Amino acid sequence: MPASEPLQVFIGDVVRLRKPHPCGSHEWTVVRLGADIGLRCHGCNRRVLLPRRELERRLKGFTSRGPDYLPIPHAAAETDTPTEITSS
Q1: Contact at 8 Å (CB) between 47 and 40?
Q2: How many domains is the chain built from?
Q3: What is the pLDDT of residue 82?
Q4: Coil, strand, or helix at residue 72?
Q5: I need a surface site. Which of 10, 28, 70, 83 has the fewest CB within 10 A?
Q6: Which is nearest to 34 in space by CA: 11, 16, 18?
Q7: How far apart, in whole angstroms, are the C-alpha atoms of residue 40 and residue 18?
Q8: What DSSP character marks residue 24?
Q9: Do residues 35 and 50 lie in contact, with contact meaning Cβ atoms separated by under 8 Å?
Q10: Which residues form the domain of 35?
Q11: Across residues 76-88, what is the average pLDDT?
């Protein structure tokens, strides 16, 4: 059986899980990515780690999506232009 594509999850996504947290909240914000996904509860601010497969199984849907990437400032953009070398 071929493995399916992993779920596209981004930092800042707000997800809704099938069962509520003991505080009563269903919504979580993604705060860490990797083999384990870090989530922060909207009700009590508790942080938990779930294996990616466990998150995919418990996920009911996305409430809102975070940015696809975090823009990196181009500090090196100023140095990309070649400098003139003068010979004396």
Answers
A1: yes
A2: 1
A3: 45
A4: coil
A5: 83
A6: 11
A7: 15
A8: S
A9: no
A10: 14-66
A11: 49
Q: Does the predicted TM-score (pTM) go above 0.90?
A: no
Q: At 85, list the tokens.
A: 């070398």
Which tokens hold the place of 72?
């990196």
Contacts of 63 (CB under 8 A, 6+ apart): 14, 15, 16, 27
Cα(56)–Cα(84) distance, integer angstroms:
55
**Tokens in use for 88?**
């004396």
Rg for the chain, CA atoms, rounded: 20
- Joined together, the tokens standing for residue 20 give 């509520």
One-letter identity of residue 13: D
55 or 79, higher pLDDT = 55
User: Which position has the token pair 């100023």?
Assistant: 78
Q: Show the tokens assigned to 84.
A: 């003139």
